[in-house]
Amino acid sequence: MVSSLSDVERVFRAGHGRAVADQRWPASGLPPGSSTDGSVWASPSRAPDPSQREDGIMTDAMRAQTITITGHGGHEIEAYLARLVDAVIGGRGSVVVIHHMPGYDAATKEIVRRFAVEGYLALCPNLYSREAPGAAPDDAAAAVRAAGGVPDERLVGDVAGAVAYLRALDDSNGKAGVIGYCSGGRQAFLAACSLPLQAAVDCYGAFVVNEAPEGLPTPVRPILHLAPSLSCPLLGLFGADDQYPSPEETAKFAAELERLGKPHEFHTYKGAGHAFFAVDRPAYRPEAAVDGWRRILDFFGKHLGS
């Protein structure tokens, strides 16, 4: 049974209700807008360059599937992989997607497919697969909350396993980045401070700087002290109306990275709160999401390209 949510958790889950079915979105990726009939559409801004192929012919055929990878402690965990079928000269960069607090859901899998459409090898490990294998996202999230959350050490091990899997693929160029949303934003920073990566994106991850307030269902501690170990450039995308993280918290975050001389780009969107990328939820803010996707693709293109 799902326990009642605290006020703090309601903030985290604002706009994060149960995702609709996968067919709600086309496999070509998350949309920059919506059609007049309410169905969403996609227009990838960065299709693979046909000239990269020796024969000059490029198709958009994609393979997306559930697989098993080796995570922390040698445990086999579920993961979702998406990649274009055609190989390219020089290989592809890799992106590990860290899902949000509501779990390994349809919307997160669509993000993975979007990165594949953009030409990356993309994979999302199911961080909840140990506690609730095969469970629906909401039920799995509830089981993990009851167990105390995902330990930081285990998160790092699971992301390391995802990176190792992607780098071992024949068409990998060896470069890997990580992106996370909500709780996954904090975890993306944690991974980038713990593993050798080429790029990291934090989408509204809280409690990097501040202590979590009482009432949060899982224990979370600040990790700003890890910033000296940040291994790669960091892109941060935040909402000005968000409480967790608040603009004051992200300003302190940026100031510490500046002090340490760590390369970073932080952007805060007016009129946007938590979960502004979520196209199927009330928190969605089209202007912020479209600009955010543009920045993400430019950032990964710069740091993960061949």
Describe this structure in words.
This protein is of the alpha/beta class and 306 residues long. It has a single domain (63-304), classed as Rossmann fold, CATH 3.40.50. The protein has 7 helices and 10 strands. The protein has helices at residues 7-13, 106-117, 137-146, 152-167, 183-194, 247-260, 286-304; strands at residues 33-34, 40-41, 62-70, 76-84, 92-98, 121-125, 172-181, 199-203, 234-239, 264-269. Strand 3 (62-70) and strand 4 form a beta hairpin. Helix 4 packs across helix 5. The chain is globular, with a radius of gyration of 18 Å. It starts with 6 loop residues before the first helix and ends with a helix. Mean pLDDT is 84; it is low at 1-53.
Layout of helices and strands:
Layout: H1 7-13, E1 33-34, E2 40-41, E3 62-70, E4 76-84, E5 92-98, H2 106-117, E6 121-125, H3 137-146, H4 152-167, E7 172-181, H5 183-194, E8 199-203, E9 234-239, H6 247-260, E10 264-269, H7 286-304
Parallel strand pairs: 5-6, 5-7, 7-8, 8-9, 9-10
Antiparallel strand pairs: 1-2, 3-4, 4-6
Keywords:
306 residues; alpha/beta; Rossmann fold; two-stranded antiparallel ribbon; 10 strands; 29% helix; 20% strand; globular
Quick overview:
This protein is about 30% helix and about 20% strand.
Helix content: 25-40%
Strand order of the largest sheet: 3-4-6-5-7-8-9-10
Order of helices and strands: HEEEEEHEHHEHEEHEH
Strand content: 15-25%
User: What's the Cα radius of gyration?
Assistant: 18 Å
Shape: globular
Could you give the count of β-strands? 10
List low-confidence stretches: 1-53
CATH fold assignment: Rossmann fold
Provide a count of the helices.
Answer: 7
